[in-house]
Every structure is written in structure tokens, then in C-alpha cells.
Amino acid sequence: MRYPVLWEKHEPEQGVPIDWNWVEQRLYAIRSHGIKPIAGLVHHGSGPRYTDLLQSSFAEGLAAYASKVAEKFPWIEYYTPVNEPLTTARFSGLYGCWYPHKADAYSFAIMLLNEVKATVLCMKAIRKINPDAKLIQTDDLGKIYSTRLLKYQADFENERRWITFDLLCGKVNSNHKIYKYFVGEGVPPAELQFFLENPCPPDIMGLNYYVTSERYLDEDILEYPEYQRGGNHRHQYADTEAVRTEFYSGPAPLIREAWDRFHIPIAITEAHIGDSWDEQLRWLKQIHDICCSSVNAGVDIRAVTAWSLLGAYDWHNLLTKEEGIYERGVFDCRSNPIHPTALANLISALARGNKYDSDVFKTLGWWQKEQRLYPHLRVKNQEYSYAE
């Protein structure tokens, strides 16, 4: 079970002894039930107030904290030091949504490199104490589609989507497309050389997949709401959910792409849809069935994780507003005591290898129905598809 042992919670001030009581009680309760925790140290955000993702000290600071976690809990085997480095760098450094609210390519690059460097240094520090510690590295599993005009942008983003794992695996050399992009934006080559000299491939690739993970780029911006409009230095375009187009592929081919590129064991570490209980069942069951089929086709998939167990607040707006809107997860926390949702019964059955029969599965999820498509995209013929 992924469990937060967050840096900003336990070390909010520098030089102050850490009070481990709260998390210690919970980790030992988890352990007493035979559950192995996956310790997460930074889950989005930038850590404590005295650092941020642009500071070179971020990596060393997180590694020092990781060492303290490993010393306190030497029995923890699995770690995710930084959740979704690429996603966090995009939303904090490229789009300006999250602190420190930058919106330029250089800030994005520095944030991403600091996060991945922190991951490498964390695992080195942890393995000095626990040589058997394993890295489960998470990031979004997506794909970009576009009109013909914007194919160059889609191609770039489809290469960029692997950058977290390429860096960790020591693949980003001077011939790598993103290497050239980073250097062109002002990143010193020595910053990239670090990853060639310190490879730290994950023991498990954690791929997070949502119905919005696949995107579609379209220069006809007037067809889309204002919040979906943006662009680059060459063109203005809309960035919308590919599920609203005919080019939405679903996770199966994307899982295959990840496996063919890295040949590292895979887990789907987030599989959630913020929707009605029946759609949540259809979503998770579909992800599980696709993973089973992928295993039969030779892909090494270790797990499917129903994230999040206890639901989430305000994730619909990416935590940019405090609206108090709750998406239930496997358990609904709005009652006292909390109670299991329909997802809990499905997960219990799947985990035991049992069948879970329900009339819910006689109906397709909305993401599989024709009605999901934007009318103005049904008549377009200039797009390039996944098969290309």
C-alpha cells in the first residue's frame, strides 16, 4: 500500500528533531496486518517551506530526510521518493498551476531534473541503510494526438512523456531529443551528465492512468473553451481530452509501449475515475482486465492499485481552488465511521482471483460510447492516429 511519509509534514522546520509518533503508529499498524507500505516522501508539492523545486538544495535535502526515514524504519522495503516528477514539473514549472508557479521551459527543466536527482540521491541514502530497498517510480501514462499541423508538438510531447524513466535509466545522452531541448533552454550539460554517471533504474515502473491522460491538440481554438486554449512559439492550439476524439486508445497500447521501451516490471499505481459508483466499477474492472491480457501477452505487470483508497478533495480542479468537493475512493470518508464503497467489493474479489458478476458490466463506460465524441471532431480527416 502506498503510504505518505511526507517530508513537509515531518520536517517542516530545519534543525528541529522529527516527531515520528503519528506516522510510526500507523506504519506499525499497517505492518501488523501483513501489509507492505510503499513510503512516499514527496507527493506533488515542493517539500517544506524552506525549499522549492527550483533550488539545487532540494535534492540533497530530500536525500537527507530519506536517510532519516530509513534509519527510523529500516524494515521498509519499497519507496517512491518523488511521485510523478514529470507531472509535478509540468504543473509547477510549465503551466504555473502549482507552487512556485513558473511558466517557462527552463523552470520546468530545472524542476524535473531536481526531482529526479533527488530520487537518485534518496535511493543511494536509503540503500546505505537497507541495501534491499526498492524504487517504485511513478509517472503519468499518457499519449498525445493532434491535427497534421501540430504533429511536431505531439511528437515532442510523446518523447517527453518518458523523460523521468529515461533519466533514471541513464538514457539521456547528447543524442536524446530531450537532452538537446534542455541544453537549448539553458540547462548546463553537467546537470544531465549526472544521470549518465548515476543510473538508478526503477525496480518497478509505476504508471498512473486516468481518462484525461491522453490528450488531443487542435489549432481550431474557437471550438474549445478558453481554459483549454494555449500554444507554443509557433502556433496557438487547444489541448483537450483525447477521449473526446476517435483517437483515444485506452491504456493497453500505452502499457505495451512502456514495456517495449524499458522492459522493467510495471504496476498501474493509480487507476481512478471521479464519477458515479457504477462508472468507477467499470473503469477499474477494465484496467484490471487489460492488465491481465497484457500479462498473457508477455508484459510483466505486478499490480493494479486503486488510487485513492480514501478518496480525494478538490482534485477536479487540480487543487487550485479550495472548494471542498470530494471524490470517493475505495472507502467513503464522509461518514463516521467510514464505509466501503462498491469498489471495495470488486477489489476484494479481484485480489482473491474470484469472479465479480454484476449487471453494471453489461453497459459500457461513458468513455467507450459514441456519445463521448465532440461533434465538431467527427467530420475531421486531417488528424494522425495512434497507428501512425
Brief digest:
This protein is 37% helix and 17% strand.
Describe the structure.
The protein has helices at 7-10, 21-32, 57-72, 85-94, 105-129, 151-160, 163-168, 177-184, 189-197, 251-262, 277-296, 342-351, and strands spanning 2-4, 38-43, 78-83, 134-140, 143-147, 204-209, 214-218, 229-231, 236-241, 266-271, 301-304, 312-313, 326-327, 331-332, 339-340, 383-384. The protein has 388 residues and is of the alpha/beta class. The chain has a domain at 1-133: Alpha-Beta Barrel (TIM Barrel). Strand 14 and strand 15 form a beta hairpin. Helix 10 (251-262) packs parallel to helix 11. The two termini are 38 Å apart.
Portion in helices:
25-40%
What name is given to the CATH topology of the domain at 1-133?
TIM Barrel
How much strand content do the residues show? 15-25%
- The radius of gyration computed from the alpha-carbon positions, rounded to a whole number of angstroms, is 21 Å
- From the coordinates shown, what is the CATH architecture of the domain at 1-133? Alpha-Beta Barrel
Biggest sheet architecture: 7 strands, parallel
Distance between the termini: 38 Å
